[in-house]
Design a protein that fits this description.
Strands 1-4-7-10-13-16-19-21-22 form a nine-stranded mixed sheet, with no helix packed on it. A six-stranded parallel sheet has the order 3-6-9-12-15-18, with no helix packed on it. It has a four-stranded parallel sheet with strand order 2-5-8-11, with no helix packed on it. The protein contains no helices and 25 strands. The protein has a single domain, classed as UDP N-Acetylglucosamine Acyltransferase, domain 1, CATH 2.160.10. It is mostly beta strands.
Length: 192
């Protein structure tokens, strides 16, 4: 076995666990889950049936990843972050529909943030601790508040970037730490 499962964790049948991954105390991984390589699944984490988790993902303590949530490579999910998968939950509803949520490569969800179902976090998007995300998050976007709003752009390292150039169809951001440049192209349409 080239992965680790703590003796108190519950891992149901038909679970695929990648090389170098660790599943810690009191975690519960339901049947049909796929966990990539070099992942860390923290204490008291619940992963619902059929969820797919990419490589190098870190899920901190107390997180529940429900059916319909897709976690791509290198995603970070902070302690007690919350995901939903039902737009109109009721205790006695037997015909509810799973609404998917997608976390793009390298996205980060801060501690105690809530991600409503049906949204997509773009690659390397960052949702600040305690925020409530109700809309899609653009790649490299930093979202804060309740409801979460776009505050700034972040580098792949998660560092806030500075707007250094504002052209008619391009915004350029620069990270002072890594010197990387982020270029966002856009077009403006006139309404008639």
């Amino acid at each position: 076995m080239d992965y680790f499962i703590h003796p108190t964790a519950v891992v149901e049948k038909d679970v695929k666990i990648g090389k170098g991954s660790h599943i810690w105390h009191f975690a519960h991984v339901r049947e049909g889950v796929e966990i990539g390589e070099n992942c860390t699944i923290g204490k008291d984490v619940f992963i619902d049936s059929g969820v797919k988790i990419g490589n190098k993902v870190k899920i901190q303590n107390g997180v529940s990843v429900y059916k319909g949530v897709e976690v791509n490579d290198e995603v970070f999910i902070g302690p007690y972050a919350t995901f939903t998968n039902d737009m109109y939950p009721r205790a006695a509803d037997t015909e509810w529909e799973v609404i998917p949520t997608i976390l793009g490569k390298g996205a980060s969800v801060g501690a105690n943030a809530t991600i409503l179902c049906g949204v997509r976090l773009g690659n390397y998007a960052m949702i600040a601790a305690g925020s409530v995300l109700t809309t899609n998050a653009v790649p490299y976007g930093l979202y804060v508040g309740n409801p979460a709003r776009l505050k700034n752009m972040v580098s792949p390292d998660g560092v806030e970037m500075k707007l250094v150039e504002f052209l008619p169809d391009v915004l350029r951001y620069k990270c002072d730490k890594s010197n990387c440049i982020l270029e966002i192209k856009f077009s403006v349409k006139k309404s008639e």
